[in-house]
Amino acid sequence: MRIIKYLLILSILSFTLYAQSSSTTGKIRGTVTDAETGSPLVGANVIIKESNIGSATNINGQFVFPNLQSKKYSLLITYIGYSTKNITDVEVFPGQSVNINVELTLASIQGETVEVIAEARRQVVEVREAATQELLSEQDIVTLPVSNIKGLLAQTTGVVETKGGRDQGIHMRGGRTGEVAIYVDGVKINDPVDNRASLDIDKYSVQNARIKLSGMEAEYGDAMSGIVDIILKEGNSNWLSISYRNEGDKLVGNIDESLDFGFKKQYFNINGPVPFTKKTLTFFLSGTSIKSDIENPSVVTKDHNNQDRFEGISKFVFRPVNSNFKVELSGDMGRETRESYNHTISTGDWLQSYYKINEGHERVSCKLSGTLNQNTAWSLLFSYYHKYNKFSSGEGQKYDDFNYLSTRLDWVRDAVNNGWYNPKTREWTTLINDNGSSAIRDNYILPDGTSLSDADYETQAFYLYNGNQ
User: Where are the beta strands (DSSP E) in 253-325?
Assistant: First the structure.
């Protein structure tokens, strides 16, 4: 019984230590002083208006709000005999401490309020150590001429995106694609096999992002080139909001057919407070659909170069009134089907057998957080992430049963070289060796229990080449 108790305590501590990651939260701290004398104002009230959480300044006039979710906040500072100051647009970034120094003047009019828009980006102080990094606010993200996080990263100094070859993807500081750790709402989304990650989250669903190229903390031990922290938006707690965006090339395609790539992108989101919850529960739902006949346009028209993708995001946040306790339930999913052009093998009439890629992922996380006092915060993070990819031919034949699949379709080349397949007529013939004997053994059994010799010639060629490697 005692051992079970110790294991339970250890598991709780491990969750807590993991959740103290700086990948999702930051701090607001500062000092309240008299504008004329510069003396600290002891006991001044500082309130975060979005959550009605308050703090009183200490003997040095200092205040701090730890463990704050990455987004914009408004502060209300009051002190008896002084003008009230309202500071808006204080943006918190992952792992950062925003320093707000407030000067209050003696009130000449009862109830006088001073409005201030904070330039928080210029006052950001790093919590831990100096590092090369880029902090991107919501305004920065939506104004960039990109559509998703992948394009956003490619615009950053020290980051390069390659679209071809086996190491295609995002590279930081000259490193490989798998050397970049990607976090969404604190959950690492890198594939454990090749350490790659899906970066197709639409920019209009992102609250802010931190791109770090050096000075990674010990918690990012597997990030050799850099880390990316992405924070998804929360629902508005005051009103319901709905937006829709539609992009395409149909208009210019009507003018010039060479510019019609069949591209169509639709984005929508709906967010706000959940009815009958007194604004304690908010939601954010978004979806992005992209379809294109030609994924990578070029001067030469390429067949088998299309894509069909959908990305969905949901986020629910529960925050009781006048409480620092918070529950976040976040998730996203993606589905994509595409055929990628490869000049090495895209010749002849057998193009339709060039493999089609089906990819997808799901992520779900639940985070509970709160503060014990001004210097102590706690949080628990539970998460699940799954990523998959499947292969099939352009005609729909699945390749899941094959242990070997080359990007150059070596099994087709082998069949052509042996005279079993004619790429021009797309006709298969009996698989025989040079001495006239059958290339298929009678004792070769397929995964479904049937004999390979009873299968069609194309299936025989697939398994024969795979078995000889």
Answer: 264-273, 281-292, 307-318
